[in-house]
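Hello again, I could really use a second opinion on something today. I've been staring at a protein lately and its backbone has me curious. Please have a think about how the structure follows from the sequence. I owe you a coffee for this, so here goes:
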Amino acid sequence: MKYRIFIIVFFSCFAAFAQNVEFEKKNFPNDKEGWKQAKNNVEEGDKFYNKGEVWYKSAIDPYLKANAFNPNNALLNFKIGKSYFNTSFKTKAQSYLEKALKLDPNVDPQIHYFLGRAYHLNMEWDKAIEEYNQFLKILKGDELELFGEDVKKKIVECNNGKELVKHPVRVFIDNVGPEINTKYPEYGAVISADESVMIFTSRRDNTTGGAIDPGLNEYFEDMYISYKKNGKWTPAANIGPPINTKGHDATAGLSPDGQTLYVYIDDGGDGNIYECNLKGSTWTKPDKMNKNIDTDAHESTASLSFDERTLYFVSNRKGGLGDRDIYYSQKDKKGRWDKAINIGAPINTPYGEEGVFIHPDGKTMYFSSQGHNTMGGYDIFKSTLVDGHWTEPVNLGYPINTPDDDVFFVISASGKHGYYASFNASGYGEKDIYMVTFLGDEKPVVLNNEDNLLASAAEPIKERVIAPPMEIRTAQITILKGVITDEKTGTPLEAAIELVDNTKNEVIANFNSNSTTGKYLVSLPSGKNYGIAVKAEGYLFHSENVDIPASAAYQEIVRDVALKKIDVGSKIVLKNIFFDFDKSTLRPESTNELERLTNLLNENPTLKIEISGHTDNKGSANYNQVLSESRSKTVVDYLIAKGIKADRLTYKGYGLSQPMATNDTEEGRQLNRRTEFKILSK
């Protein structure tokens, strides 16, 4: 009996040991040619594997061919599993690493670490924690110091993941489709504030120059562009020269109006941010930014504020808080980027930050970080500027964030749609661009009312109560956009657009419409009274007033502007001249508009004009006549005080006699209460 037990145990141990099959000729006596080819495949894979992580991806194909011949070699399974971590197919690593451990628990000292990572990526949190702890147990001395903190951090990430997955955010995540995505990698999408244009990076076979990066065995990066028409993206086209070159050219950021593009150029390993501008239908040649932005360190992504006065960017320059930090620079009085400032805590951490994006509302920042409460790798976070300080970043949650790296997230001005790159086995290629649609809060539980007076207790009649629709929160911002043209010919014009905070009498920003299309887009964060002036040489300026309450939700206002030539009879409404209620006293908010009028008269010294006042029909005709004349006189008096000769100025009051809209609505009456000027002679 004892002998039989000994034989069973002996052969069981031998069988367990024999499970690990080495690539030796004696183990394959019946297929020497197959063994020879498999051994060559292993050696070919090893050539790539031994060159370092960047080459692991190239090792996978020959390794898999060898594995198909001999699937029971522990070391080969380990190498395949480890190699998959350097591809988009990271989750495939798990089965190979599990088998490697089963075949030989001592196959490699790091087997528990990589198996922990595999479980981590597949969101098997407890298994991952167990493997990480197993790895910690075998670390000693220098190894513990070298790897210990990283492993402990990954255990924290697993615990974060367990909590985040319990409370998923309500979103749809959809592939943006074949117009954008191909079998090649697509990533780094940037969009205009109104989602009308998308520019992204891809490694396609039609890359400029058609060359393959010998270090990665992939095509060089190029940028591609697509436009949204009738709610659909047009087929993406290579953006072409001078932006794309024979080297790597990648997206780094796009201004809210889509007129300024930031480009990442490798510069021989010293990555830098370049700027180019859309002039008509042509992009200017990328221009390297000044030394306050681009340094000898590595700068990668950038984001321009809505007023174009602050640039946020990522750099690993010396003196930071971690591996990569977010910095910002502001324009000086001459329009140059000033000394960069580390944005500091709580945004930056001792770990890496990347992919900074400042929302057009001017107060919400999105960025990726390896710190904070990430669930693995880089997660996307959100922070808000309150009273000059950034709030503690909030994880955007699962399923937006995953245990893998989630980077380069941008969001529309409305706050409804976000875009980023991700890998999905059902996608078009290795990495695809996806759109995140935020659904808002979930509807409350709907309870049924039971009427027991009309039915028995056994079978009550139930009345279904429909919950009210849930409001989807949007960003507090208004997008003002349109086309600027010549009033008579309809020809698109390049015009200067000045944005003013009327309350502070402060110029916030200056923009230009596109010289070919005449299109413009201005982002207006809620909570201000804005004055907008459109100016072009040889034309009267056009003014708009947009008063946006602090509580106002997202809206898009389309306002086309037809500029009038400086000709006799031309007349415009001065929409940013304000008077005290029922008085002719100018309010301080009128200053910028009056200064524009003064400048126009100084620039055209022979111009003679009429200032006219108009009212709605509230009150008597006589009262309105007197009020309108008094107001127009006040404007003339202001201009005279500024040095304009009195004989060039005439004032008239028309009261309620010349309405430009109905007086039956408040909107119409508001339009009728206006100050105009008309050219009498040149």
